[in-house]
Every structure is written in C-alpha cells, then in structure tokens.
Amino acid sequence: MKSGGGLAPAEPALYLIGEASSRRTVYMEQAARQQGISMRLIPWADFRREPDAGRLRGTPVKIDPPVFSTVCLEQMRTELEAYIRLLEKLEESDCQFLNTPGALIRLLDKKKSKQCLLEQGIAVTRMSDSEPASVAQLLDWMRENRCYGVFIKPRYFSGAAGTAALRLHPVRGDMVLYTSCRLEERRLINTKRLYQMRDREDIQNLLTRLLSLECVLERWHPKARVHGKSFDLRVVYQFGHIAHMVARCGDGPVTNLHLNNRALDAGALDLSPQTMREIDRLCASAMEPFEGLSMAGLDILLEKNTPRPLVIEMNGQGDLIYQDIFHENRIYREQAYYMAISNMHRG
After folding, report:
1. Which of 163, 193, 197 is nearest to 177 (CA)?
2. Are 301 and 127 within 8 A, CB to CB?
3. Sign (positive/negative) of CA torsion 185, 186, 192, 193?
4. Cα three-residue angle 291-294-298, rounded to 5 degrees
5. pLDDT digit string, tens, across residues 154-200
C-alpha cells in the first residue's frame, strides 16, 4: 500500500456514511487526513431524513453500520429491517462503493450467505437445514442426529448478537448454554458479557424467545487451543489480500472480542506456512461469490487437532480491529487510499 503526499483529488475524494462519534469514523478520518485525502461524513441521521442517493452518484462511498438504539433483540430486528431498506435505497445510486449495498445485504443473511459458500465448495462450519421453531424440536433434532453441541444464531444479526452455544448430555439430558443474551422482564436483551446457564427451565425460556427470531442452527466444531484457551481468527481481507489477522481467545465457545475475550496477535500462534497459505486461499475463495465486495471480516475456525481452516461466517462491515486502529491503522489507510485513487482515475 502506498501512502503519503501527492493525493489531492477534487473535493471531496470520498464519502463515508456512518456515525459521527464512532471509532470507525474517527480512525477512517485520521487515515484519510494522514494521506492528504479529503473525506466527508454523511451521518446516518441525515441520510434517514433525506435518503437521496443521487447526490453521491459517481463518487467513492464507504458504508459503515448504524448504531442500534436498543439492546432488545426483538427491537433490534425491527431496526435492522429499516437499515436494510436504506441499503436498498442506496443500491439505486451509481456510486463506487467500497462494498456495494447489495453485497452488504447478502452477508447480513447468515443462512443464504453460508449456502452460497457451500454451493461453491468452500470449506465452512456445518449448518443444518433444520429450522427448529421450538426447544422440543431443537432437542429432538440434536438427539436424532447425535449432534450434542450446536450454535443457535439469529439469521440476520452480527457481532454475536443473540448467539447461543448449547451442549446436551446424550444420556442424562443435562444442558449447558453459553450466550450473551439475558431475559429481563420477558424481553431478550443483548449484552457484552458471556453467560453460562445450567438451569433447564431458564435455558428453555431463553431459547424459546431466541428461536422466535428465525435462527440458523450450526454444529459445534471443537476449536484449536492456545495458552489453555480456545480460539478462532478474525481475518480482514481486502483488495485481494489479508490486511490483518487476530486470534480471538476465550474460555467459552463464543470468542467475540467485545465479550471480554482476549485478542492475541496471530503471529503468536506460530501457524505453519502451509496453514497460512490455506487461510489466504480460503478467504480469497470466500470473497469471490459476492459481487461488489472489496473487503470483509471473515471468522475462521481452525479445528482442534487439525490445521484445517473453515469459514464460520463473513461480515461485510467487519473491519474495526482495535489492535490495528490504535497502532498503524493500516486497514483504513489502505481503504482511503484505494478509494481516492479510484476517484482520481474516474476524473
């Protein structure tokens, strides 16, 4: 990636649709400013009031996610649907999107995006065709398939919102549930803490509400371990290469970093050159089916006792990596540079 002076395209060089107070915005602005690139923010609040995408026609545009105004999952679902409608509005414009609205919409759907990867023969964690609507149906499926560990995820959320990992004892029927959700006054609340639940009635009550949100069901793959903790990888892949990779380490099965899990530099894993090549090829292959996608955050699982990498899921806005923005800020610097260059070439 090149950087530095010499870039002075017409004002502005690129637009960012996002939130003014977000770290995403702060560090994208910093990345642009350090390279002499002009950037203009369009706050989501402004775009909601005046959703005219025509003013952006022909310009480079990055779309960051809006901030939800609620932690209640049922209400978050409503806000997510409104966000998708705004993306559909943006799709009508003729812009040079970093990631097109259509690509973002496709990746917001965990079921369809995973099916797309499967159809292309890409190695992924296993997803069930079953869509249990009740706890009884879920437990029946687990017993019939002898699958005693599963992940239950709302089909359209990201950032581990609503994610639950369930283990069922095949003989005693005991259950343990790991989740960042809590039931409070009969509302399903998303938190930034991972809970472990063992009371059967409490588990059934929470899962009943969760399954009502339309969930996908995935097998629980055992993750590789480092320093006594299980881990997976968040890989930011953009412009045809790995821009950053961090290991997400935790005591439980859900390793998202905002749940007080530990980030570890991927270099500390001492992965073999062959494994690194396989991860790179896997990410490149996973990007190909999604037209309009220049960048994605891919969650990659390395199975226990084998270096084989599998795609857990993809996030079209998964580029906020604290270990990068607080140091070199390479991810956003590269985005700002290539978006500005595309604007200059257009001119």
Report:
1. 197
2. no
3. positive
4. 95
5. 999 877 788 899 999 999 999 999 998 999 988 999 988 889 999 99
What is residue 117's DSSP assignment? Answer: H
pTM assigned to the model: 0.91
Pairwise CA distance, residues 120 & 108, whole Å: 19
- Percent composition of the chain: helix, strand, coil (DSSP 3-state, to 5): 35, 30, 35
Q: Are 286 and 298 contacting, i.e. CB atoms less than 8 angstroms apart?
A: yes
Sign of CA dihedral 39, 40, 44, 50: negative
H-state helical runs in the chain:
23-34, 44-49, 73-91, 101-108, 110-119, 135-144, 200-211, 273-287, 322-325, 330-346
Exposure string of 102-114, with b = 16+ CB inside 10 Å and e = fewer, is bbbbbbbebbebb
Residue written as token pair 């359209």: 156
Report the pLDDT value the prediction gives residue 4, as an integer from 0 to 100: 42
User: Helix or strand or coil: residue 271?
Assistant: coil
Q: Is 106 within 8 Å of 99 (Cβ atoms)? A: no
Say if CB 134 and CB 210 are below 8 A apart. Answer: no
Distance (Å, rounded) from C-alpha 257 to C-alpha 248?
6
Q: How far apart are CA 80 and CA 85, in angstroms?
A: 9
